[in-house]
């Protein structure tokens, strides 16, 4: 249960102001069909985070506990620093209308935007950290993504304008810093 709760909280916070959250806002404004967008985000996240979790699980079994502890500690601290850099969505990343419809366009755009993103890397690290709870990590990171993105699809700019993104990023950075320090000193 710890893996699920930590994964949900970390990803929900890390996703605030992230480029995939901005993509959710753009998709909602462009297509104005929330259900296929939310379902596309969900499907893309499940597949993406299941793959990321598998990588984290593989890394854990391949490297051994001592090397993994140092890599995880350094990675969580690096993630804390990365959280302090604001994301923006580039024009070439904006989804174009396609023959795949709203769901397919969202699925493809979101899956690709999530590749190498903070939340995908966090999923790899969390799956490596909670090696015996792979499914709980994937469920938690997926729930965290949905908690951060689904409301944006429905409520759009009203949420984005009222949430102090710098504060949320600061809290996320602090959480990643604590996880990194904990990994380095060997907290279980």
From TrEMBL:
Annotated Pfam families: GDT1
Domain of life according to the entry: Bacteria
Keyword vocabulary terms for this entry: Membrane, Transmembrane, Transmembrane helix
InterPro entries assigned to the protein according to its UniProt record, in alphabetical order: GDT1-like
Localization: Membrane
Transmembrane domains' residue ranges: 35-55, 67-85, 97-113, 133-155, 167-187
Major site of localization recorded for this protein: membrane
Lipid bilayer topology: Multi-pass membrane protein
Protein family according to the UniProt entry: Belongs to the GDT1 family.
The protein's name in its UniProt record: GDT1 family protein
């Amino acid at each position: 249960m710890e893996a699920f709760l930590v994964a949900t909280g970390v990803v929900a916070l890390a996703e605030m102001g992230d480029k995939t959250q901005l993509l959710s806002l753009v998709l909602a404004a462009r297509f104005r069909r929330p259900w296929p967008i939310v379902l596309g985000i969900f499907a893309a996240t499940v597949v993406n985070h299941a793959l990321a979790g598998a990588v984290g699980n593989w890394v854990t079994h391949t490297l051994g506990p001592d090397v993994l502890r140092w890599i995880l500690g350094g990675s969580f601290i690096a993630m804390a620093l990365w959280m302090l850099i604001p994301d923006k969505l580039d024009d070439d990343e904006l989804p174009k209308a396609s023959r795949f419809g709203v769901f397919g366009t969202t699925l493809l755009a979101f899956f690709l935007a999530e590749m190498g993103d903070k939340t995908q890397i966090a999923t790899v690290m969390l799956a490596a950290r909670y090696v015996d709870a792979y499914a709980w990590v994937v469920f938690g990171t997926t729930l965290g993504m949905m908690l951060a993105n689904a409301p944006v699809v429905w409520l759009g700019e009203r949420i984005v304008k009222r949430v102090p993104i710098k504060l949320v990023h600061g809290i996320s950075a602090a959480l990643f810093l604590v996880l990194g320090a904990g990994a380095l000193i060997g907290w279980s």
